[in-house]
Amino acid sequence: MRTLYFGKAINVALAEEMEKDSSVYIIGQDVGYGGVYGITKGLRKKFGEERVLDAPLSENLILGHAAGSALLGRRPVVEIQFSDFLSVGFPMITQLIASYRWRSGTGLPIVIRAPYGGGKNGGPFHSQCPESWFLNVPGLKIVIPSTPADAYGLLKTAIADPDPVLYLEHKKLYWEIKGEVPEQDDANAAIPFGKAAIRHYGHDCLIVSYGLTALMAEEAAKVLWEKNEISCAVLDLRTLMPLDEQEMIRFANSCGKVLIVHEAPKLWGPGAWLAQIVKEANHHVRVGILGSQYTPSPFSPPLEEFYLPNSEKIVQAVKDLLTWRKK
User: Fold this and answer.
1) Percentage, residues of the chain above pLDDT 70
2) Euclidean distance between the first and final Cα of the chain, in Å?
3) Required cofactors, per record (predicted)?
4) Of 62, 84, 89, 196, which is the most buried if we count CB atoms within 10 A?
5) Within the chain, which residue ranges are assigned CATH 3.40.50.920?
6) What are the residues whose beta carbons fall under 8 Å from the beta carbon of 255, sequence distance 6 or more?
7) Neighbouring C-beta atoms of residue 227, cutoff 10 Å
């Protein structure tokens, strides 16, 4: 094992896959010098300009280039500078890339990487959580890691996948979170899609989350036990599509109460869909949802703190769920 930052784990996974397969290449804005967050730093020097390709400021062009090259047998890894700008490339993703196998019988092995989320005072154009935009688009896999090991292993699986993968990385994790990552020759390094991870065991309440909020949920679970002797399980979904429904339902049935936490706005967010799955499996399970406010993300630090979920809000939401009584 080696200890790496979340961002470095992605960088290392990219380098290893590019070494292994000459058809893998990177395309995006400013990826030649490392990109906004330094994730591709050093890769152009190692692999050359043709495999770490700087592109103009046009998400549709970048995604169209990736689609065309994938048809010719290459395996592009696209970097979109901020996930907010996936909206600019929305037609290419939803109308061409996602549905191509359904229409032609040929998959497009494209990985679309994008940093998402707030907490950096980036305001409404650099802080959005776009997963809900794409959950209703058949043909896309949606991956959201929370640990360096998952960032590494899930990216390897994404690059090997024969179909398009939307790979979302929370920008706060890049250089703030360190963890153990398998060595390159570890046969178990790649992590299969649709396999959730249990981060904390408990029996009073299940907290379901992914990405940065999964780490917040784990922290909240520890506080709830230490201060209130409330025992919470924490399930990190890791991939929203495919979804590990079986594991989520199993723990939900065991605990009887479920809190779903995500950074996307609570209203019309992924939590509603996850809650429906839980309730259809067992209508006796009590389900709550915690997400961001239904407003654009604020620039102001105090307003953003109010807007976003955090571990303290998760603690309170669990307490509210456990003490709720039907009126």
Assistant:
1) 99
2) 53
3) thiamine diphosphate
4) 62
5) 197-323
6) 202, 203, 204, 205, 206, 233
7) 9
Tokens of 149: 């090991």
For 320, half-sphere exposure in the C-beta direction (CA atoms, 13 angstrom radius) is 11
Residue 91, both tokens:
């037609």
Dig out the tokens for 287 from the structure.
Answer: 């389900």
Contacts of residue 16, defined as CB under 8 A and 6 or more positions apart, other chains included, come to: 156, 184
Catalytic residue ranges: 126
Distance CA 174, CA 38 (A): 9
pTM of the model: 0.96
Read off the amino acid at residue 114: A
- Which CATH number is associated with domain 197-323? 3.40.50.920
pLDDT digits (tens, 9 = 90+) for 291-315: 999 999 999 999 999 999 999 999 9
Cα–Cα distance measured from residue 290 to residue 270, given in angstroms and rounded to the nearest whole number: 11
Q: What number does CATH give the domain 2-181?
A: 3.40.50.970
Q: Where in the chain is the domain with CATH 3.40.50.970?
A: 2-181
Helical ranges in the chain per DSSP H? 6-20, 43-47, 59-71, 90-91, 100-104, 131-134, 148-160, 212-228, 245-255, 270-281, 301-307, 311-323
